[in-house]
């Protein structure tokens, strides 16, 4: 594999990672909206907690993608 091919693969990988992080952030927003609409306190708590976990994972993916982006520079 050439250097150019590796760079292209890395670029596609980081683009997919950024896209995944964005999709997770959209899911997180949906979870928090659902939590606000939930009639039971326990359901609200669990949905907010899940939303927070999804946010943490999205941020971790974004950080890893950013590190890969920095390696390309």
Helical residue percent band: over 70%
The average pLDDT score comes to: 92
- Whole-angstrom Rg: 17 Å
What is the first-to-last residue Cα distance? 19 Å
Number of helices: 2
Number of domains: 1
Note the beta-strand portion: under 5%
> Order of SSEs, N→C?
HH
Largest sheet entry: none
Oligomeric state, counting identical vs distinct chains: single chain
Structure class: mainly alpha
The total of beta strands comes to: 0
What general outline do the C-alpha atoms trace? rod-shaped
Low-confidence stretches: none
Describe the model.
The protein has one domain. The chain is built from 2 helices and no strands. The mean pLDDT is 92. It has 73 residues and is an all-alpha fold. It is rod-shaped, with a radius of gyration of 17 Å. α1 packs antiparallel against α2. It is 92% helix and 0% strand.
Can I get a quick summary?
The protein has 73 residues and is mostly helical. It contains two helices and no strands. Helix 1 runs antiparallel to helix 2.
Question: What structural keywords apply?
Answer:
73 residues, mainly alpha, 2 helices
Task: Annotate the secondary structure layout.
Blueprint (H helix, E strand, L loop, with lengths): L2 H35 L3 H32 L1
Helix pairs in contact: 1-2
């Amino acid at each position: 594999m050439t250097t150019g091919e590796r760079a292209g693969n890395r670029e596609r990988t980081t683009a997919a990672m950024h896209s995944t992080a964005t999709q997770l952030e959209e899911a997180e927003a949906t979870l928090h909206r659902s939590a606000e609409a939930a009639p039971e306190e326990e359901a609200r708590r669990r949905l907010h907690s899940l939303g927070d976990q999804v946010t943490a994972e999205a941020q971790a993916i974004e950080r890893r993608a950013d590190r890969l982006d920095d390696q390309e520079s």
